[in-house]
Write a structure and sequence with these properties.
By secondary structure, the chain is α+β, with helices and mostly antiparallel strands. Among the domains are: about 160 residues, Nucleotidyltransferase, domain 5, CATH 3.30.420.10; about 55 residues. About 30% of the residues lie in helices and about 15% in strands. It contains ten helices and twelve strands. Helix 4 links the parallel strand 6 and strand 7. The radius of gyration is 41 Å and the shape is extended. The N and C termini lie far apart (about 120 Å).
Length: about 400
């Protein structure tokens, strides 16, 4: 019996031309396929129809079949367009100038990350505004949030607009008197409310001329409370700076009174071990440290060990009732001990009986009493009275309105 010739699969390389004869010359044999067995063809149409009916319907195996214990992770993507819209403006003058001679706050609002950036400025001159804007602009560019459209007040200086043109940032000036056209106006109100609440929590003796040192923590905590528009699962601070680690950088109420520890190398032999100061903000580049202002030296210090002294909230202490209850529980636990203890009196002694009786008195006195529901007093029914007719009020005319508002014209 003669064997049928084998079939060879050829692989055509990319360098070969498309023509078939030349491609056959450069082909490579991958594997050999055995010849197909000859099939018996039906002799008649009725026999073929019978065999087709007897054959089962072909079933297509699914490309992927989940098992009962199979775990899958579905990933969905969503495309978000980065608009690059920002808005900026300056606040009014603060009540007192700071030690760094700052009087105003420059506020910039980024629409995509929903973040608010606040920087102190000494005046409202064009050089100060331009330098502060450039500082925030470089930050956003470094974080991948390059501004494309900037809305600002109609009093923008030519120095600032020329700088935006050089940075390829389009700008729009709001009309005079229509401050709601600028996104920064709402951001200024939000920031001022947050900053004022922080100033109210400072110690009464905290020097107010250090208000610009509190801006770092004010903007940090404010952006931690605001969700990002790009990813609502992240905060505005996480969108710009990354995730915030509270263990690495702990926070405290601004302006709280503290005692900063002084190392043995930095103090005299019989000097106190701490210095009185005020907490002004976190140290972002140090692990578990605080930035403290020391009035005695009129300087700032980075301290890693501090003791807190809040003025509005008292430190939790045990009251007289709590001390008595704890003593009664300790006495009860000691009297119930069955093991022999050298410090505990024998059960047959008179002192032990007196302590047991005293324990029963304390136990009955400290038991919570059952509340007896109080009966509500009967309220007499209110009798309906005849409604009183209101006097007729003459309509206000245009002349009367002008007379009433004459002082405002």
């Amino acid at each position: 019996m003669t064997s049928a010739p084998t079939k060879t699969v050829h692989f055509i390389t990319d360098d070969d031309p498309i023509s078939l004869p030349s491609a056959t010359k450069s082909s490579k044999t991958l594997h050999t396929i055995p010849p197909e067995e000859p099939q018996h063809r039906p002799t008649s149409s009725n026999t073929a129809q019978t065999q087709i009916q007897q054959q089962p319907a072909p079933t297509l195996a699914p490309a992927f079949q989940e098992c009962p214990d199979h775990k899958t992770h579905h990933i969905y993507t969503q495309r978000e367009t980065i608009t690059g819209q920002v808005g900026s403006d300056q606040t009014g003058q603060f009540v007192v100038p700071s030690t760094s001679r700052n009087k105003y706050i420059f506020v910039l609002y980024d629409y995509d990350s929903n973040s608010i950036h606040a920087e102190p400025i000494p005046n409202r001159k064009q050089e100060s505004i331009k330098d502060t804007y450039e500082k925030v602009l470089r930050l956003l560019q470094l974080r991948g949030l390059r501004p494309k459209l900037h809305r600002l007040d109609n009093e923008a200086s030519k120095l600032l607009t020329d700088f935006m043109t050089d940075e390829q940032v389009n700008y729009q000036l709001t009309p005079a008197g229509l401050h709601h056209r600028n996104w920064a106006e709402r951001a200024i109100q939000t920031f001022k409310n947050h900053f004022i609440s922080g100033l109210c929590s400072t110690h009464p003796d905290f020097p107010l001329n250090l208000w610009d040192k509190l801006l770092l923590q004010a903007t940090l905590t404010l952006n931690l409370l605001r969700p990002s528009r790009i990813n609502p699962q992240l905060s505005a601070h996480a969108q710009v700076y990354g995730a915030f680690n509270f263990d690495k950088t702990p926070l405290a109420p601004p302006g709280i009174k503290v005692l900063a520890h002084e190392r043995a190398e930095d103090r005299e032999s019989y000097a106190v071990h701490s210095a009185r100061g005020y907490y002004v903000g976190p140290c972002l580049n140090h692990y578990h440290c605080y930035r403290v202002y020391i009035p005695s030296t009129n300087s700032f210090r980075i301290a890693n060990t501090v003791d807190w002294f809040p003025h509005n909230i008292k430190m939790p202490t045990a009251s007289a009732t709590d001390i008595l209850l704890a003593t009664a529980k300790d006495l009860t636990a000691a009297l119930r001990q069955n093991q022999q203890n050298a410090l505990l009196l024998p059960p047959d002694m008179q002192t032990r009986h007196a302590l047991t009786k005293l324990n029963e008195i304390f136990s009955s006195a400290t038991k919570p009493q059952e509340e007896i529901p109080a009966t509500l007093p009967r309220v007499p029914a209110i009798q309906m009275k005849t409604p009183v007719t209101l006097p007729r009020v003459p309509a206000t005319t245009t002349e009367g309105y002008l007379d009433m508002t004459a002082t405002n014209r």
